[in-house]
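Please check this one:

***
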Amino acid sequence: MCALLRPHLIYETLDAVPSDELLRRGVRLVLLDIDNTLAPYTRQTAGDALRAWAEAMRGAGLTLYLLSNNKGTRPETFATELDLPYVKRAKKPSPEAARSIMAELNVSPKETAIVGDQIYTDMLCAHRCGCLAVLIEPIELHNIWLRLRYWAERPFRRVHS
C-alpha cells in the first residue's frame, strides 16, 4: 500500500483531534480543509461549535490556517467567521500552497499538520510536504459521487503510517 496515501493519525470527528497530541508531536501550524472536514458541503456557515473548537485550538497554542481547493465563497465565509487566514484554489495534492503558507509563517513541515477528509488530496498533500497527515472521517456523504470517492479510499482509511 502506498505510504504517501496513509494518514499518520485518524479521528472520527474534527473535535476529537487533541491539541495536546499535536503539540506533543511538535506541531505549531494546522492547515485545515473546509469541505466535509470543518463543515458538510450543505452548511454555509461555521456555527458556534466550530468557532469554539477553533478558539480552543488557538488557546492551546496552535496556529490555524484554512487550505481549501474550493473555488467559491466558502473559504472567505469560513475564514471571516473563524477569524483565520486562508488560501482557496490550493490545488491539493500539489504541495505549493501549503509550502507557501509554511514559508510565510516561518514554520517547518515537521511543525505542520494537514487535517482533512480526503486521502487523494489532503493526505497526499501532507506527505508531499513532509507534514503530519491527519485524517478526519467525512461529515456527510450527501450524494452518490461522494460515496463513490470515499469508497475508493477505504483501503487507506484503515491504515495508519
Observations:
- Residues 68 and 88 are 5 Å apart (CA to CA).
